[in-house]
Amino acid sequence: MNVNSDKLMSLADAVFRFVPDGAHVSIGGFTINRNPMAAVYEIIRQKKGRLHLYAHSNGQGVDELIGAGCVDRLEIAYAGSGRFASTCIRFRKAVESGQLPVEDYTNYQMTLRFMAGAMGVPFLPTRSSLGSDIVNRWGFSKTVRQKDPRVPDRKLAVMENPFAGWCDTDRVVLVPAINPDVTIIHVQAADRQGTARINGLPFADVEQAKAARHLIVTCETLVDDDLLRGAPERNQIPFFCVDAVVHVPMGAWPTACYRHYDYDPTRLHHYRKAALDDDRYRAYLETEIFSSKNHEEMMARIDDRQLEKIKADPRTGYAVGLDRR
Amino acid sequence: MNVNSDKLMSLADAVFRFVPDGAHVSIGGFTINRNPMAAVYEIIRQKKGRLHLYAHSNGQGVDELIGAGCVDRLEIAYAGSGRFASTCIRFRKAVESGQLPVEDYTNYQMTLRFMAGAMGVPFLPTRSSLGSDIVNRWGFSKTVRQKDPRVPDRKLAVMENPFAGWCDTDRVVLVPAINPDVTIIHVQAADRQGTARINGLPFADVEQAKAARHLIVTCETLVDDDLLRGAPERNQIPFFCVDAVVHVPMGAWPTACYRHYDYDPTRLHHYRKAALDDDRYRAYLETEIFSSKNHEEMMARIDDRQLEKIKADPRTGYAVGLDRR
Amino acid sequence: MSTEIEYTSREMMAVAAAREIRDGDIVFCGTGISMLAAMAAKHISAPNSVIFFETGAIDSQLEEVPLAVGDPRVMFATSVNGGLADAFATMQNRFTGRQVVGIMGAAQIDIYGNLNSTVIGDYHHPTVRFSGSGGACDVASFVSRTIIFMQHAKRKFVPKLDYLTSPGWLDGPDGRKKAGLPDGGPACVITNMAIMGFDPQTRRMVLKGCFQGVRKEDVLDNMGFAVDTSQATQIQPPSAEELSILRDKCDPQRLILG
Amino acid sequence: MSTEIEYTSREMMAVAAAREIRDGDIVFCGTGISMLAAMAAKHISAPNSVIFFETGAIDSQLEEVPLAVGDPRVMFATSVNGGLADAFATMQNRFTGRQVVGIMGAAQIDIYGNLNSTVIGDYHHPTVRFSGSGGACDVASFVSRTIIFMQHAKRKFVPKLDYLTSPGWLDGPDGRKKAGLPDGGPACVITNMAIMGFDPQTRRMVLKGCFQGVRKEDVLDNMGFAVDTSQATQIQPPSAEELSILRDKCDPQRLILG
């Protein structure tokens, strides 16, 4: 909640100020699209730890945060990156080795939880997951739940319909609201005050943004407010929700940013190969992330021809004919 | 629910097919803006009766339907048209004379009720109205509620927060979903299949549209689907929600249609004057509505200079400097 | 030296409300005089305040005064044109809602600042039917501070409301908490005669100040219940600057000012 | 006269699923082979079917096959680009949801078509951790008909799931009603060997038909539970037209077909 007229800052500042160790964090995007990757790499660079991470199907960003050891607890619906990792690799290793407690919800439930947080209600109802183990099995113990006042006392609640079968419904599942300490999203365009515009699918970014106590918006292009206010139907984030605006071209790379660039198959395959082996992964962290000062330097090391290939075609918004094998 | 590729029909056909006597109906728009007035007049012309009407603050359309005697029961948050009628005049007369049973909710509650209908859940929660008479007093009797299976058994339910004070909330009000038999909205642009685009504020039209069993979309301009699909971020209604597409230029008149025309102060004052007196109102119905075959004919009788004055200015989307006294 | 400038009580009311708006507030506006107050505040003391409407328009650039919250004038050059659902969620939201100040009017008010905008008389057989809550009850339920406009009259300041549309402090200091409402409540009532406040302990209405030429007794004579007047001051009349902003920048056609 | 055309079991599976899609269906697609099936159906028997994704894309014009439901290829020239909230509401909605057919896969399936895509082994100390539900449980909960892709193997067709991620018929004919779920459930399971259905009375899995060259015994040998095979037929192999659509129009790069 911030009505200042200029919130532009560096990514290092934004992460330093709004992502303390132990923070409850959510990131935008979906699988291999519009993850705020520059911010993810900056969190890794600043060696943030003990994060409590909320995700629906955010994919690549989640896996890199887990791989770098930033995440202590995870609430999630789906940890995968489509054909590049049907299960996110570092996530899988962390869970199978007992290092990462996870609470499982469905995609809609995570969306509703952010929506409840954005709406300011303690829960929202759905008919999803009745009769399933998502209702019956809980990932976080009572003790964990009691220790952290930022975690609700129960995973969910099943409730009889108080309106006597209204809508042919006998029973619903109530899922508790999430109010992250900070949400980070990457958008196509923002102004200095924070008004933000997403092109293509917004996923659940808007709900995640509005649910959070603090909001960092990284943007592909920084524009004048006149441009955004010329078509306010296309903007999703009112400026007063925003705490930091960060201009980061290629800020979603190696995930896609619709109408700017496609996902980078070369990089995602490279990541996949590194992630499968602990030694190679340590080397990846060192040579690809820690050794670069910031995203600009990280991007400068990538072959221009590789980036040229993923450039979005103006008609379709993605890289037509890109070799994705 | 209809995936046909061509749903274009006349307004008379659409109203005849989807608005039977006794139907549960909701209309889009807000006070003096983007009410589906052409459809309202056609409902009046076809002398539809015993309608159960749902509205948040839909204003002009609601008052004309009530004035013409089409409405038996009303669920509403606000019956007013801004400075043209701080309380809708025919609504007020109908309620004060005991002819119109009303159930009162808040604007947010009505919005949530449509949203619940759109989402397919029996209710949604809010903290609004706790401690107020909106919770304590009910407009519809138990008998009315029991007689019509399309009305829930209770107005609302107050519930303790099952997540032990989560979000600093002890208690919420649950409001029941609405699934109208038919919703009618007026939009700036639609294609024959039904994909629809609203410019400016959508109000609660999208929730109302998706909550309904049947949906009539009247549109200011009928466009090729290529045009709408070129910027799908700006479309709100997927075609499969739509049953009838009706092309009606000036279809919101005398309420406004952003970027096309402003509200018509001359007509709204004329209406106001007529509505205040029963005899004058009967004459209004006869000479202005019943005596015209359709909206085209109704519009043809309006002085061109009057319509020229309300034409939207291309920069602002409304009629700059319009005499609105 | 100074020149006397004539002004109306509506102008005084609009200016008084504008003064209550703080820089950085998100101002929820209804129809009429509350819009003028919010527009004026942006030109005077609260340039970074944000005007927003229940219809979904956020930070409207009001080149002309809207005649309804659904007026197309509220849609021009906003930060975001959202829907009703977004607008109310902004107020119920635990972070943004705390920054919202709501401005509203009503037909009746009681000593705890509860409002009636629904009926006079029996609910099922009303003598007078008004518009109903609209967003008023939502705003009164959610936000941290409300400013209320009223005409000062006995039939409007009543011991008991015919219908409680919008919760104020309900029945006193713990009223809202017991009911389950968020913190917050009515901050002041601006009338054609005076500004009323609420005692921070008892949450009962008090007289904060009278407008120029109005005596405490005049105020009390026009109310259906007694209030503490011991702390009442004299309210500063509108300055020449305040009036010129209101008249020239906000409502040159005098659509609201009359 | 006819010419033999070689085809893979993946191609057979995609074609079999495409044949299950009816004209007018709204098809919920996951990643991989289910997208190919939906794309193929639009070219074959269901030109008016609508492809939509949990990410919010409605009626995507798929000029290239997406590699994830978040792939930018799903955003091109849609009817509406909504959000996750809109997509799932479409399925839970009482009117549109009835028209949706969901296509999904899983790691394990039981005789009632319940699915596990979360863990193998103990939930808290799993031998294998998978991605988790994603939207699978939502789809399985909401829609009227689901089509399930599985590899035919004993470790996948199990008497008891390690974790019930997505509800099928639960424990039999009244299972979903007792749990509070809407009507609907799994329609068929398409594997690399056969198509399984569900008995309308018992809701237990049955063998509907074998692919070319597969015997009933082969199918049973690769399952951890027995099913009725008495009604099983021989499944028509893919036609030349079906194969050419799949290969030339849907996945010319063989990104999914391999």
Instruction: Report the oligomer.
Output: heterotetramer
| Low-pLDDT regions of chain A | none
User: Cα-atom Rg of chain C, whole angstroms?
Assistant: 18 Å
Order of the strands making up the biggest sheet of chain C: 2-1-5-10-11-12-13-14
Strand content of chain A: 15-25%
Could you give the order of the helices and strands of chain C?
A: HEHEEEHEEEEEHEHEEEHEH
**Biggest sheet descriptor of chain C:** 8 strands, mixed
| Overall average pLDDT of chain A | 97
Describe this structure as you would to a colleague:
- The complex is a heterotetramer, with two copies of chain A (325 residues) and two copies of chain C (258 residues).
- Chain A is an alpha/beta fold and 325 residues long.
- Helix content of chain A is 32%, strand content 17%.
- Chain A has 13 helices and eleven strands.
- In chain A, the strands form two sheets. In chain A, strands 1, 2, 3, 4, 8, 9, 10 and 11 form an eight-stranded mixed beta sheet that branches. A three-stranded antiparallel beta sheet of chain A has the order 5-7-6, with helices on one face.
- Chain A is globular and about 60 Å long.
- By secondary structure, chain C is an alpha/beta fold.
- Chain C has seven helices and 14 strands.
- Chain C has helices at 9-20, 33-43, 84-92, 136-142, 175-179, 216-221, 240-250; strands at 26-29, 50-53, 57-58, 80-81, 100-105, 108-109, 115-116, 119-121, 126-129, 145-149, 185-190, 194-198, 205-210, 233-234.
- An eight-stranded mixed beta sheet of chain C has the order 2-1-5-10-11-12-13-14, sandwiched between helices.
- In chain C, a hairpin with a 4-residue loop joins strand 8 and strand 9.
- In chain C, helix 1 (9-20) crosses helix 2 and helix 2 (33-43) packs across helix 7.
- Chain C is globular.
- The mean pLDDT of chain C is 95.
- Classes of the chains: A alpha/beta (325), C alpha/beta (258).
- Chains in contact: A-B, A-C, A-D, B-C, B-D.
- Chains B and C meet through helix 4, helix 5, helix 6 and helix 8 of B and helix 3, strand 9, helix 4 and helix 5 of C.
